[in-house]
Amino acid sequence: MKRKNSKVKKGFSLVEMLVAVFIFLIVMTAVVTIFARQSESFSYLRIQQRNTENAQFAINFIAKTLRTSTIVGDPLLGTNPSETDIHVFDYSQDLCFRFQFDNTLGTLTVTSRLPDPSDKLSCGRPSWMNPADPSFSGEHYELTTGFVRGSFHTLETTRDYDPLAIGNQFRIGFITMRLEISDTNPATSRKIWIQSSVSLRDYPAELKF
Asked: What pTM value is reported for the model?
């Protein structure tokens, strides 16, 4: 007589299945976490790249405008350019410009309008260049994205009429701009700095190079 095979094929026990599922869940959780962090880092870098490119465009636009401009203060108030607010008259476009940092809101804005035909120094009057003023008739917009802090360090062009000097003495003005770029949460984000200097060309006509 043939003997029956007494061996019985056994499968996985319930405990083994639970252990396998638990290990699988740990591995998948780790993989998903790593992928999510990489995706978040990539998105953050893209945002920072966009903000930096916009800030670079802004600083180039300001520099191009300043090269053909002269700094204008308010003769009535005796105001001078501040570190966050500068008024200029651009000879090449015959326009008034105001560049302003709001380091609380993290914005860099530009305001432009035609000057008063009878008084080009009107560019330096805060009310004249205030977009909230009902009489304002110009353009106003933000130049950057993200959170931007910055400052202007200004040295105006001067002309010395000292009679004891041999000829007139001139000092060519220049402006240094510094921008600090971050995302919408500057307290926790990494920052990028951009700096540029530009010479003014509002020197006297008799000054030759």
From this structure: 0.72
